[in-house]
TrEMBL record:
GO MF, any single term: DNA-binding transcription factor activity
DNA-binding segment(s): 29-48
Protein name: TetR/AcrR family transcriptional regulator
Gene3D superfamilies, per database record: Tetracycline Repressor, domain 2
PANTHER family attached to this UniProt entry: HTH-TYPE TRANSCRIPTIONAL REGULATOR BETI (PTHR30055:SF234), HTH-TYPE TRANSCRIPTIONAL REGULATOR RUTR (PTHR30055)
Keywords: DNA-binding, Transcription, Transcription regulation
Provenance organism: Streptomyces bathyalis
Length: 205
């Protein structure tokens, strides 16, 4: 029974992600989520107290919906992570819905910056490793740079979504790194970094 409950909850999250991703929070209907999940109203409300509770859970699940690329911690793994996210945002409905709800959350009715802070912590960890390996310029503040990178990434992906439904997002993130590397890494380190927009290369590590 416990396993069934876990599976039902995941079905609800995936169905909700589809609906929230397609039309946003306000247009989403609980009846449509129930239909796509193939569950009853009672089953849905057993796991989630309201549409708002469900939306917040989807938003907070975005980090867990992505497996980070392999490789040693540092600047290259950070670059690979952001490019992998670009590809995931083209296909991963749970991630896409979580990102959309995070951007629209003031319209939804909650205020929670934890999704941004979680990604900032992921980025900070890789930047800290990069600093230890001498991959960053002297004076780079990894905490502030991590927050800046999250802000830049949020803006770039949102612009790409509006302009072409994220079809060019990997290219735009690659452009972001081509310019950012000039400011944060020593010249030889920047030259050694691989900024590839090809998903199979990222999967291969």
């Amino acid at each position: 029974m416990q396993q069934r409950a876990v599976e039902t909850r995941q079905l609800i999250l995936e169905a909700a992600a589809e609906v929230f991703d397609e039309g946003g929070y306000k247009a989403a209907r609980i009846s449509e989520i129930m239909h796509r999940a193939g569950i009853t109203q009672g089953a849905l409300y057993f796991h989630f107290s309201s549409k708002l509770d469900l939306a917040r859970t989807v938003m907070l699940a975005q980090r867990d919906s992505v497996v980070l690329p392999p490789g040693p911690d540092g600047l290259q793994r950070l670059i690979d992570t952001t490019l992998l996210l670009a590809h995931e945002l083209q296909t991963n409905k749970l991630l896409r819905a979580g990102v959309r709800l995070a951007v629209e959350q003031e319209e939804v009715g909650f205020h929670d910056d934890s999704p941004y802070r979680e990604w900032a912590e992921v980025f900070r960890g890789q930047l800290a490793a990069a600093a230890e390996r001498g991959q960053l310029r002297s004076g780079v503040d990894v905490e502030r740079l991590a927050m800046l990178l999250v802000g830049c990434y949020t803006g770039v992906q949102h612009f790409s979504k509006l302009s072409c439904k994220r079809a060019d997002l990997p290219d735009r993130i690659a452009d972001l790194w081509q310019y950012m590397l000039l400011g944060i890494a020593p010249p030889q380190v920047a030259a050694d970094m691989i900024v590839s927009t090809e998903a199979p290369l990222l999967a291969a590590g």
